[in-house]
Amino acid sequence: MSRALHFQKWSTYAFWKRQARTWHWMSGAICLLGMLLFALTGITLNHAHQIPANTEITEREMVLPADALASISPDITIEDGAILPAEIVRSVRREINVNLAGEAGEWTDIDVYVSLPRPGGDGWISIDRETGEVFYEGTSRGAISYLNDLHKGRSTGPVWSLFLDIFAVACAVFCLSGLWLLQIHSPRRRSTWPLVAGGLAVPALLLLIFIHI
């Protein structure tokens, strides 16, 4: 083999090796905190039945002012699933510090009910269309429940859902670039592929032996 051809092959190998390392550390940097969060919440989810929930219930009441009440008068026909009028949103936020912006309600002739699920808890609010009486109840299950719901994407909204998608892609890049690096270094490390095979075989055997469909 000529020296020029040998140098070209070495340069190509070095280039792809640098690429593998670059993609691996960049994706690792992006995923670091997220993977720690998901690893820890994987443990808490797996032992959820053993972790007591610190449930706190908050109740608040108010009466709508006349102008806000007029916007949902029983005389006005409002389709089920319609969002709450701006007057209601402003009054409720000002008086009991509950944000109803963009929330759709379950409308009847006498009241409107709004479900307010959120990570780590739940909530709901009921508004009497005749008297203007408002009752809110919020439930919080603590920090661990909050983090578990972030892990599951429960009631987190479209922005967090988008983040989960991006995070999943970054994790895939991290794993695949790691596999690429394993392939690069495997000729000098004979235990590489047996360890990779073991990482596949152990969960597969556990599923076959201990988990029955």
UniProtKB/TrEMBL annotation:
TM ranges: 159-181, 193-211
Pfam family, one: PepSY_TM_like_2
InterPro entries referenced in this protein's UniProt entry, alphabetically: PepSY_TM-like_2
Keywords attached to this entry: Membrane, Transmembrane, Transmembrane helix
PANTHER family the UniProt entry points to: INNER MEMBRANE PROTEIN WITH PEPSY TM HELIX (PTHR40115:SF1)
Protein name: Peptidase
